[in-house]
């Protein structure tokens, strides 16, 4: 059993609307997989189903062989299934260091302490200093998040993800909205992620997908229509149709 | 923007107990100042300290967890009644009575927190009001326990430590309350900077994010509510012991609304803001309200509107920002 | 049997007063997401204006109602432009609470300054003040009048929101304000009109309900919570919800006060807590 994460026939519907249908795939340690698809294909819903935001209507999810289908968000995070957000969600009034330190302390079970030091506790501090250093944002440690530039917030989002020691990391459009000159930093950081974790990245930017992914999953109309190498994906007729179809739809007046 | 917290942090690195020391010194200074300003009205200052503890308690849930509540007086009042009854029932030792107040407050806090933090937004606010009003209605009804509208009287605790008798000039009451306030304040200063306190602030900022770092939110909020209840319980206990009587006003909606106003005037999410907001508000109330309560209301109303428009983070924060603008022009850290 | 009838009649008429005043708040909260604690203050202003119009200007009851509604709306316009507009939809609950509590305090202070601290009567016309014979017993005409007012208000609102152009725009804005914006619906005008409607209804309810909720400066504080509770229980923005909640809570409160007066508002708030757990979004609330 080498699968870290396994989805089997996962479906999710909202009322009568089937947003994900019969999706099955597997992630192994060290995987670098991209999930792409036209707008409205159900990518974000799928990330929510995997991370625990929505329960699937049917199907199962396994993490390291354990059934996690019914586990809530915190329980999945504690088992090493971690996500980042498309639009950054950070603790806005706390400093960058506090944000990462909270993740570290939560992972280590320190947040039940009522009177000890927090961010500045030595064992916590060495860890967040090192993490922020790796991502090149150590100089921002004492700055409140709401005052950080957007690209810096995305890097911090990654730092929080890493602070949780993930086994599986879901990256929801990590470079979306990042100014052009800062995008390479994000990519660099993603390329330097620990080799043994599995990464599933949702991304629109095909350049990024080609540089990052060894395997690509294509979602269209809620179904997985392709799984294969980045080289094969552009040649696949069904994928081309799905993308062209969506553009044709978009041009039609609503 | 967060000048107060950066201030606290830099001093924190320079000397491990700087913030705590600042806390003790500030409260001692406030005590001396109060004694000089109102030497003949120590009873008022004592009452002020009890309410200040309630404001600090409210800050824990509203300022640090983002729970807007208009029913916080319930925690204060239940403890005050519990202490009053314990004292009448024979437990006269002041420290022990404080313990009774803490336990009663923590239990009430845990129960109301368990109900209130299940909800968000409007239902949460309304539930907090409903619980507060429920307690108020019960206090009115159960007159055998609360004395009803006459109040629960005949509360005569023993001398503090067996040495200091509660005198009619409220000297002992004032000193005892001030010391208790200093101890609680220092403990809270540490508490809000602990990992638990930091997590609560995180939950306030974004509770989904908190879940996404693996935190189970609901029990944390209930625990915080219980701690808040314990602090309110200290205030209620002091109030009952030093006044010798507990009235329906200690559970009233007006009390809940008033402490929320004090907290926000001072600056929610900051213990110093809560402390100064409470002290300044009550002193002004004492002076202005005595001449005409309606002028006082108009004034508070205008002040609230001004706060929302011009200093949304509270007066103390506004003063700090102004201070740094005036004295550190151009020299932003 | 007599008691049940009395409770029923008093409960329903009290509920109708709650409904007339609260429905404006409910629509406002559904559309603009503003927790307006000052709503009761507007009802109180309506009451004061009506009392002033009748006692000092010699106006009749009907004219006094019109004066109260229009006068209150005029008074509220600068508040809407200067203050309320800032907190539509975007502000957090605490900011809204503080601003609207602040407004309430100022209005209370001013009301006392202008009209004094005493109760202000709004004398009923003869046609409404006596008892009404409904065959097997006599009931106070005013109660019937209030109930009729409530029913008419509900029907008129339903027509307004379901059948008119304004209603369509209003519903579009409630469902999706960004979409409405992009479709060219001027949401700020919809907001302003809704605010005026809410304030006007509040003032109307303040006048016709003055027999049950007497007009004095602390009116705004005393019933602040009651109106908010009705909206929350009914579900913000829902006419049917507000009506159901008003009647339910009106009956609960009246029954409690008849049968166990020493418990005060205990049963009212017990009902609120129970309903909050059974219907977390309110009786007729929708998910946002």
Largest sheet: spatial strand order of chain C: 1-2
- Overall average pLDDT of chain C: 86
Rg on CA atoms of chain C, Å:
19 Å
Largest sheet of chain C: 2 strands, antiparallel
The share of residues in extended strands of chain C comes to: under 5%
Low-pLDDT windows of residues of chain C:
none
How many distinct domains of chain B? 1
What kind of oligomer do you see? heterotrimer
Instruction: Output mean pLDDT of chain B.
Output: 87
Write the element-wise H/E pattern of chain B from the N-terminal end onward.
Answer: HHHHHHHEHHHHEHHHH
Helix content of chain C: over 70%
Task: Walk me through the structure.
The complex is a heterotrimer of chains A (254), B (333) and C (288). With 254 residues, chain A is an alpha/beta fold. Chain A has helices at residues 43-51, 73-78, 96-107, 122-134, 150-163, 183-191, 206-212, 230-235, 237-251; strands spanning 5-14, 17-27, 32-36, 58-63, 66-67, 81-83, 168-172, 198-202, 215-220, 223-228. The longest helix of chain A has 15 residues, at 237-251. The radius of gyration of chain A is 19 Å and the shape is globular. The longest helix of chain B has 27 residues, at 217-243. Chain B is globular, with a radius of gyration of 20 Å. The relative contact order of chain B is 0.17. In chain C, strands 1-2 form a two-stranded antiparallel sheet. With 288 residues, chain C is mostly helical. At the B-C interface, helix 6, helix 12 and helix 14 of B face helix 3, helix 4, helix 11 and helix 13 of C.
Concise synopsis of the structure shown:
The complex is a heterotrimer of chains A (254), B (333) and C (288). With 254 residues, chain A is an alpha/beta fold.
What layout of secondary structure does this protein have?
The complex is a heterotrimer of chains A (254), B (333) and C (288).
Chain A: E1 5-14, E2 17-27, E3 32-36, H1 43-51, E4 58-63, E5 66-67, H2 73-78, E6 81-83, H3 96-107, H4 122-134, H5 150-163, E7 168-172, H6 183-191, E8 198-202, H7 206-212, E9 215-220, E10 223-228, H8 230-235, H9 237-251
Parallel strand pairs in A: 3-8, 3-9, 6-7, 7-8
Antiparallel strand pairs in A: 1-2, 1-4, 4-5, 9-10
Chain B: H1 3-14, H2 18-37, H3 42-65, H4 73-88, H5 94-116, H6 121-141, H7 143-146, E1 152-153, H8 171-192, H9 195-205, H10 207-212, H11 217-243, E2 245-246, H12 253-266, H13 271-291, H14 293-310, H15 315-327
Antiparallel strand pairs in B: 1-2
Helix pairs in contact in B: 2-8, 3-8, 3-11, 3-12, 3-13, 4-5, 4-11, 5-11, 8-11, 12-13, 13-14
Chain C: H1 2-32, H2 39-55, H3 61-87, H4 93-115, H5 126-129, E1 131-133, E2 138-140, H6 141-163, H7 165-175, H8 177-182, H9 187-208, H10 219-222, H11 224-234, H12 239-259, H13 266-278
Helix pairs in contact in C: 1-6, 1-9, 1-11, 1-12, 2-3, 2-4, 2-9, 3-9, 6-7, 11-12, 12-13
């Amino acid at each position: 059993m080498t699968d870290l994460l396994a989805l089997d026939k996962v479906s999710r519907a909202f009322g009568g609307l089937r947003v994900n249908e019969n999706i099955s795939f597997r992630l192994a340690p060290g995987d670098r997989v991209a999930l792409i698809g036209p707008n409205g294909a159900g990518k974000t819903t799928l990330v929510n189903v995997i991370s625990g935001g929505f329960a699937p209507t049917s199907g199962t999810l396994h993490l390291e062989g354990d059934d996690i289908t019914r586990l809530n968000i915190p329980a999945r995070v504690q088992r090493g299934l971690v996500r980042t957000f498309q639009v950054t969600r950070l603790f806005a009034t706390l400093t960058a260091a506090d944000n990462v330190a909270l993740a570290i302390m939560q992972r280590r079970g320190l947040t039940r302490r009522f009177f000890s030091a927090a961010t500045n506790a030595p064992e916590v501090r060495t860890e967040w200093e090192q993490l922020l250093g790796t991502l090149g944002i150590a100089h921002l440690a004492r700055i409140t998040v709401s005052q950080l530039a957007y690209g810096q917030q995305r890097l911090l989002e990654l730092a929080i993800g890493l602070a949780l020691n993930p086994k599986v990391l879901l990256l929801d459009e990590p470079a979306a909205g990042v100014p052009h000159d800062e995008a390479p930093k994000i990519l660099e950081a993603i390329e330097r992620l620990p080799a043994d974790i599995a990464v599933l990245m949702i991304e629109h930017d095909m350049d990024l997908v080609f540089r990052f992914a060894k395997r690509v999953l294509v979602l269209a109309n809620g179904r997985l229509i392709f799984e294969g190498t980045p080289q094969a994906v552009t040649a696949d007729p069904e994928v081309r149709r799905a993308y062209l179809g969506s553009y044709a739809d978009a041009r039609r007046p609503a | 923007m967060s000048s107060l917290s950066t201030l606290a942090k830099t001093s924190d690195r320079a000397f491990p107990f700087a913030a705590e020391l600042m806390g003790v010194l500030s409260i001692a200074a406030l005590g001396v100042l109060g004694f000089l300003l109102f030497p003949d009205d120590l009873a008022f200052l004592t009452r002020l300290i009890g309410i200040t503890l309630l404001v600090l308690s409210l800050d824990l849930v509203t300022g640090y967890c983002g729970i807007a509540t208009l029913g916080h007086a319930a925690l204060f009042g239940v403890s005050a009644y519990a202490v009053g009854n314990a004292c009448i029932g024979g437990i006269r030792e002041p420290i022990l009575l404080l313990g009774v107040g803490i336990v009663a407050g923590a239990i009430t806090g845990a129960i109301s927190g368990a109900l209130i933090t299940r909800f968000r937004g409007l239902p949460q606010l309304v539930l907090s009001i409903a619980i507060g009003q429920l307690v108020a209605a019960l206090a009115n009804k159960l007159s055998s326990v609360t004395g009803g509208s006459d109040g629960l009287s005949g509360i005569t605790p023993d001398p503090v430590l067996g040495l200091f008798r509660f005198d009619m000039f409220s000297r002992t009451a004032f000193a005892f309350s001030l010391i208790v306030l200093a101890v609680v304040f220092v403990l809270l200063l540490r508490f809000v900077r602990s990992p638990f306190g930091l997590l609560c602030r995180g939950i306030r900022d974004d509770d989904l994010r908190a879940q996404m770092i693996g935190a189970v939110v609901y029990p944390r909020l209930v625990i915080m509510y219980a701690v808040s209840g314990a602090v309110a319980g200290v205030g209620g206990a002091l109030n009952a012991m030093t006044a010798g009587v507990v009235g329906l006003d200690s559970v009233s909606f007006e009390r809940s609304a008033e402490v929320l106003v004090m907290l926000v005037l001072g600056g929610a999410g900051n213990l110093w803001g809560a402390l100064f907001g409470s002290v300044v508000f009550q002193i002004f109330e004492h002076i202005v309200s005595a001449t005409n309560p309606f002028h006082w209301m108009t004034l508070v109303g205008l002040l609230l509107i001004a706060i929302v428009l011009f200093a949304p983070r509270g007066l103390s924060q506004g003063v700090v920002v102004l201070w740094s603008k005036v004295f550190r022009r151009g020299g932003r850290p | 049997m007599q008691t049940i009838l009395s409770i029923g009649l008093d409960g329903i008429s009290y509920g109708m007063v709650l409904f007339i005043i609260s429905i404006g708040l409910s629509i406002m909260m559904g559309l603009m997401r503003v927790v307006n604690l000052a709503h009761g203050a507007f009802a109180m202003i309506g009451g004061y204006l009506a009392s002033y119009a009748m006692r000092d200007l010699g106006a009749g009851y009907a004219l006094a109602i019109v004066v109260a509604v229009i006068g209150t709306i005029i008074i509220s316009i600068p508040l809407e432009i200067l203050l309320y507009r800032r907190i539509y939809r975007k502000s957090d609950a605490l900011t809204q609470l503080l601003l609207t509590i602040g407004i309430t305090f100022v209005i209370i202070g001013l009301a006392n300054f202008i009209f004094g601290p005493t109760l202000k009567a709004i004398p009923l016309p003869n046609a409404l003040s006596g008892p009404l014979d409904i065959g097997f017993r006599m009931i106070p005409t005013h109660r019937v009048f209030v109930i009729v007012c409530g029913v008419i208000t509900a029907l008129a609102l339903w027509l307004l929101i379901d059948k008119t152009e304004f209603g369509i725009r209003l519903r579009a804005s409630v469902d999706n304000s960004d979409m409405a914006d992009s479709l060219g619906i001027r949401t700020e005008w919809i907001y302003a009109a809704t605010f005026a409607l809410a304030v006007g209804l509040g003032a109307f309810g303040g006048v016709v309900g003055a027999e049950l909720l007497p007009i004095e400066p602390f009116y705004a504080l005393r019933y602040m919570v009651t109106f908010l509770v009705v909206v929350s229980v009914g579900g913000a923005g829902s006419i049917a919800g507000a009506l159901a909640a008003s009647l339910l809570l009106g009956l609960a409160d009246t029954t409690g006060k008849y049968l166990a007066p020493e418990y005060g508002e205990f049963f009212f708030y017990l009902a609120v807590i129970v309903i909050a757990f059974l219907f977390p979004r309110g009786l007729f609330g929708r998910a946002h």
